[in-house]
Amino acid sequence: MVRCYLPTPDKSLKCPTDVKADDDGNIYVVGRMSHNIHMLSPEGKFIKLFLSEKDRIHRPYFLSFNKDFSQVMVCCDMDDKFSSDGGLNIKLFDMI
Prior knowledge:
This protein has no helices and seven strands. It is mostly beta strands and 96 residues long. The chain has a single domain (13-94), classed as Thrombin, subunit H (Beta Barrel), CATH 2.40.10.500. It has a four-stranded antiparallel beta sheet with strand order 1-2-3-4, with no helix packed on it. The protein has a three-stranded antiparallel beta sheet with strand order 5-6-7, with no helix packed on it. Strand 2 and strand 3 (36-40) form a beta hairpin.
């Protein structure tokens, strides 16, 4: 079965670069240029913005879960907002 996710303007998703699923079947879509990660239900319905720029992620590339899905690692750009030296950053977040 193929499902399409079309975010509304208030749930911006620009330049999706990675998609992963957790052990419950929830889907996570990385929005590189919208600086966020959308969490969708197994049916493809929007649940929430899982992470966003307020969580200090900027232009995320991809994400990965640890083995027991208790943490998620996000690779993203660093810029002058969050770092004085630029470059790449890997951030680790606990799943709640």
